[in-house]
């Protein structure tokens, strides 16, 4: 009897159903063929988002939370952010609930992908984004509310700061503890994965005590790894440096070969993820993972793209590559490599969904399901 690899999954809202349908058999085939039929995936479906609301009256049922706590690993499709009431964002809520403090988003050029760059093969970044603070922990008060007025008068009274009375107010917390743990995580990731450079991406020239502190505390952690990290490019060690965020966006486009692991506070990582995805074809090919000390949830970088829901056109690559990340994380690197290689060969042979095909002359787009079938065939042949 084959041994089962149990994986929890959430289909997600919008295009979630399309990408799940196109992808799950690819992952099953990869596990089956990588281990000569000795292992197979047993899926456990969990509900969240609109489907959960329709079914049980809750956007995030207790059973879903308990199952993720117990199984410790899950893959999910995108979840639409409910408008009005409920969670600010279900995705953010899941990351906070399980303390998934490291958001990992590899951005690697695969042969055949369209790119606005002349030398896209140099794009091989890993964005490590702090996933619990900054934007995600931010508090806002609407312009004209009692709370906003109180905060303004407190600021005036205590610090003499005068802010226009018709302002909305936001608070952006970045802590020493939160920064230290993501910096440590990024350095250990870089060591384990033999990465060459870690660049802290910050706006510390302006926001000195949040973004600037993120930079300072990250360097302090780096100094605790003298055997592995250098600040001057010593041969054989990881070069640790930093860039101001606006410059980093330019550098990523003009000199991608100089960058490797990008260590970002939450908001910078958010912006940079989509911008870097654009260098290799777009959101359709950008995988991701949210990782804590105990639990990990894998998911594509993109959202639920509601206008494409149910149309069988969307690109499932980001979900497939997120699945490959999951397989590697749970100790099945051979299966992960099969998925990656099959996606790469499929793209190289010019089989692409609309988002990539529209960037290359002469390519006729295939459906989401057809792309999945092709990748599955490649997995089986590999
Ligand atoms: P989005 O769903 O990521 O879609 C934005 C655009 O990106 C799409 O219109 C499409 O571009 C392109 N795109 C996204 N996924 C693609 C794929 N698999 N293949 C090809 N192209 C793809 O962003 P949004 O429209 O701003 O957000 C929709 C909802 O998703 C919101 O409720 C948002 O809060 C939520 N969201 C969820 C997550 C998550 O679950 N982690 C992440 C982000 C957003 P074209 O129109 O140019 O074809």
Your description of this structure?
- Helix 8 (245-254) runs parallel beside helix 9 (266-278).
- It contains 13 helices and 13 strands.
- Helices cover 41% and strands 17% of the residues.
- With 382 residues, the protein is of the alpha/beta class.
- It has helices at residues 16-34, 50-56, 62-71, 90-97, 146-159, 176-192, 211-222, 245-254, 266-278, 317-329, 333-348, 354-357, 368-381; strands spanning 3-10, 39-45, 73-76, 102-108, 124-130, 139-141, 169-171, 197-202, 229-230, 238-244, 261-264, 289-291, 296-298.
- The chain is globular.
- The strands form two sheets. The protein has an eleven-stranded mixed sheet, sandwiched between helices.
- The mean pLDDT is 95.
- The chain has three domains: 1-102 and 286-382, Isopropylmalate Dehydrogenase (3-Layer(aba) Sandwich), CATH 3.40.718; 115-133 and 174-280, Isopropylmalate Dehydrogenase (3-Layer(aba) Sandwich), CATH 3.40.718.10; 137-172, no CATH class.
- Residues 78-81, 91, 282-284, 299, 302-305, 314-315, 318, 355 line the site of NADP nicotinamide-adenine-dinucleotide phosphate (NAP).
